[in-house]
Recover the amino acids of this structure.
């Protein structure tokens, strides 16, 4: 399996990851090496094998559908890059808005 | 009495109980070691003020007769665990300056049991690496050096800072996370004990995610008993992590204090005899088996036929999950933000500038294997192989109680060695990854020094949720090996 520069550029675009033009060719080489090594998995016949969905044999429980947390609006909003905007500045637990710099035109 | 920083966790808690020292004195002694060995770069953030406050509170609790399991014990926390009010970076530029408003369940459990945080340790970026060289905050130096060779060695990774801090006696214990070997391999490189619990034993809530089906928090310490004490405090069902197992927490420390392994069957997987393993490690492995045999265990040859496929399958599963998990770092809601002419370019610029080379490589691999038309050929195939690996272990455990293998194919290497070829670097984890793929618990125990004077470790792998048997075997190995070497100058 060999990846060319164009394929790496396409994956980078899918991953929303800017890769400088001059790094595309070396990356294509590295990734091709990794995929060539991964190819050995084709030696294994997996035609009747159910893919693993969980490593744990333990049945995971459902939890009760009830409110267990809350009243922490100030904490929820603390890391907002555009700052926290509270509906009622005198009651920070009344809620507010998580604001980010404008991302739509 | 020995210096406070030379004491194990078990010794510290009894010294504190006997009023031979206060938690504040214990914290100060360890903080002084952080000062002394800052050049190792083991910490990204030191929290001396918080440590003193927590120690004061600990002394107050003890005075009221409310001492917890780890009351007054100073610990270092891998900077992948969210800690309320303390910067949490995952060693990435993209998260630099991020201050969580919540505490991970594992660290909250540790603080509930009385432990004191001295700081957040360095790691490979987003826990991706086996050398600690991929950290945005610079590599960590291993306290150990080869005899007559002054070159800096890596502490292993990804939890390299946590392992180096314990090996340098800056703390008696620390937390790590293990996705493919990130606790066991650095423990071996630094001559300490490191345990990866069964997947689901410790909650992943509040731990920055790398590969969600593999990630598992676990402890580092200098003895098996201390490791068990930490595990006991860290474990437990957490409704906030849907994969956390709803099981009671056994008395792990009691298991670690009982190195009676008479009649225990120890499996030796023949597929772990692979080319590229140093001869010294092969010899160490049979020496380890002899030690367990002398202690009354019975060696059993077992076969894990799909071992060689674990590593390439891991390099599909882990990058695929990483590419999904790291999609959240988009420059909009938190973390680094690099502007662009439109939203797509803002994403691309932010992620291009914020992620290091290894993280970028894994995101690209993951995005490729999950892209349209490739899912069956890669991710599904890897999960099928994973099922076969888990089946291999299940069958082996019908014949034995634990498995004994090397932890890593070599001792610690120098910064810069093995760095050019990513596949060669990935091979470092060949002995640890199969157990990760099957979600099984594993522990690395230091056994001896190699001809260069570097520590070597052996790995024990246990049945799912049977850390008690694993700890008993580890305690027996520790007792027989009686490893007591310290890195020169630490």
């Amino acid at each position: 399996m060999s990846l060319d520069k164009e394929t790496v550029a396409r994956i980078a675009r899918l991953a929303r990851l800017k890769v400088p033009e001059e790094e595309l060719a070396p990356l294509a080489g590295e990734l091709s090496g990794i995929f060539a090594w991964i190819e050995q998995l084709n030696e294994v016949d997996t035609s009747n094998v159910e893919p693993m969905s969980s490593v744990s044999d333990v049945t995971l429980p459902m939890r009760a559908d009830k409110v267990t947390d809350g009243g922490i609006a100030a904490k929820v909003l603390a890391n907002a890059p555009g700052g926290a905007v509270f509906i009622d500045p005198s009651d920070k637990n009344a809620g507010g808005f998580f604001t980010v710099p404008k991302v739509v035109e | 009495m020995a210096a406070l920083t030379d004491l194990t966790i078990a010794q510290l808690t009894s010294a504190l109980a006997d009023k031979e020292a206060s938690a504040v004195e214990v914290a100060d002694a360890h903080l002084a070691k952080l000062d002394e060995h800052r050049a190792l770069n083991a910490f990204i953030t030191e929290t001396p003020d918080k440590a003193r406050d927590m120690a004061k509170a600990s002394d107050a609790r003890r005075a009221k007769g409310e001492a917890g399991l780890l009351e007054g014990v100073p610990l270092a926390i891998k900077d992948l665990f969210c800690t309320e009010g303390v910067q949490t970076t995952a060693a990435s530029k993209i998260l630099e300056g991020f201050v969580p408003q919540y505490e991970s369940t594992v660290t909250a459990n540790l603080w509930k049991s009385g432990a004191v945080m001295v700081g957040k340790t360095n790691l490979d970026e987003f826990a991706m690496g086996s050398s600690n060289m991929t950290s945005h905050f610079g590599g960590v130096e291993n306290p150990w050096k080869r005899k007559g060779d002054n070159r800096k060695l890596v502490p292993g990774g990804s939890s390299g800072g946590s392992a180096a801090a314990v090996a340098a006696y800056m703390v008696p214990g620390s937390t790590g996370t293990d996705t493919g070997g990130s606790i066991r391999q650095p423990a071996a490189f630094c001559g300490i004990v490191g345990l990866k619990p069964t997947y689901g034993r410790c909650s992943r809530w509040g731990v920055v995610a790398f590969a969600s089906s593999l990630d598992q928090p676990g402890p580092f310490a200098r003895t098996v008993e201390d490791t068990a004490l930490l595990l006991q405090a860290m474990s437990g069902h957490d409704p906030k992590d849907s994969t956390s197992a709803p099981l009671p927490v056994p008395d792990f420390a009691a298991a670690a204090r009982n190195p009676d392994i008479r009649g225990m069957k120890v499996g030796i997987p023949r597929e772990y005899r692979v080319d590229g393993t140093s001869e010294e490690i092969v010899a160490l492995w049979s020496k380890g088996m002899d030690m367990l045999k002398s202690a009354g265990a019975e060696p059993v040859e077992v076969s894990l036929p799909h071992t060689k496929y674990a590593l390439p399958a891991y390099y599909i599963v882990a990058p695929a999950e990483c590419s999904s998990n790291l999609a959240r770092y988009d420059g909009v809601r938190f973390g680094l933000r690099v502007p662009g002419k439109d939203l797509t370019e803002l994403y691309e610029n932010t992620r291009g500038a914020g992620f290091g080379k290894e993280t970028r490589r894994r995101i690209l691999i993951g995005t490729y294997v999950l892209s349209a038309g490739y899912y069956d050929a890669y991710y599904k195939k890897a999960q099928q192989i994973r099922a076969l690996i888990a089946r291999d272990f299940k069958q082996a455990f019908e014949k034995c109680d634990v498995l004994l293998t090397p932890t890593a194919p070599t001792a610690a290497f120098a910064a810069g060695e093995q760095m050019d070829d990513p596949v060669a670097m990935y091979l470092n984890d060949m002995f640890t990854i199969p157990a990760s793929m099957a979600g099984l618990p594993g522990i690395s125990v230091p056994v001896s020094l190699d001809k260069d004077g570097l520590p070597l470790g052996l790995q024990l792998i246990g049945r799912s949720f049977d850390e008690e048997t694993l700890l008993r075997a580890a305690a027996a190995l520790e007792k027989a090996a009686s490893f007591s070497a310290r890195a020169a100058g630490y």
Q: What stands out?
A: Chain A has a mean pLDDT of 91. Helices of chain A lie at 5-14, 21-38, 73-77.
